[in-house]
Design brief:
InterPro entries: TAT_signal. This is Secreted protein. Keywords: Signal. The structure is a single chain. This protein has a single domain, classed as Macroglobulin (MG2) domain (Immunoglobulin-like, Sandwich). The radius of gyration is 24 Å and the shape is globular. Residues about 10-30 have low confidence and may be disordered. The protein is mostly beta strands and about 160 residues long. It contains one helix and eleven strands. The strands form three sheets. Strands 2, 7, 10 and 11 form a four-stranded mixed beta sheet that branches. A four-stranded antiparallel beta sheet has the order 5-4-8-9, with no helix packed on it.
């Protein structure tokens, strides 16, 4: 039985469209990017809710829109004066869709936590890259050590924010 020219053309067109659609579905994101910067440790409670403690340490999760293990996530902290806080500019490769960093405000004030992802492996141009931010506030605090002899006392390792 002979196949008509129209049926062959139609079949070829369907196959071409199917292959193109499959290629689009398998393609990853065009640009790797940071999608969020979140402090995952608890802040103060009550009247100081949402305020973090100066002298305490907090975990920061930077979320990315891909799992490209060859693209570093860059992180830095701007202090209350708007300048980069010494020893806070760092980078690491993500694990899955996130990278973890830490933040320890040294003094009360408003901070900016910034993150970006870059494929070239160089320190990013923070002015031109796509940068995500979190803007926490730090207040006066008391940090209870978790090392002996404090390790056995209630609230060992806790941070009490006193003044926003």
């Amino acid at each position: 039985m002979a196949v008509s020219k129209t049926r062959r053309s139609f079949g070829a067109a369907v196959a071409f469209v199917g292959v193109g659609a499959a290629g689009l579905m398998m393609a990853g994101p065009a640009n790797a990017a940071v999608t969020g910067v979140d402090i995952t440790s608890a802040s103060g409670y009550g009247s100081v809710a949402g305020t973090y403690g100066a002298g305490c340490s907090y975990d920061v999760k930077v979320s990315v829109n891909n799992e490209a293990s060859d693209m570093k996530v860059y992180f830095r902290v701007l202090g209350p004066d708007g300048e980069v806080v010494e020893d806070t500019a760092t980078s690491k490769y993500p694990t899955g869709n996130s990278a973890s960093f830490s933040w320890a405000p040294g003094a009360p004030g408003d901070y900016t936590l910034q993150a970006t992802q870059d494929a070239e492996g160089d320190m990013p141009d923070w002015e031109s890259e796509e940068v995500e931010e979190a803007t926490p506030t730090a207040g006066q605090a008391i940090s209870i050590p978790s090392d002996p002899p404090f390790g056995s006392v209630p609230f060992a390792g806790a941070c009490f924010v006193l003044v926003p």
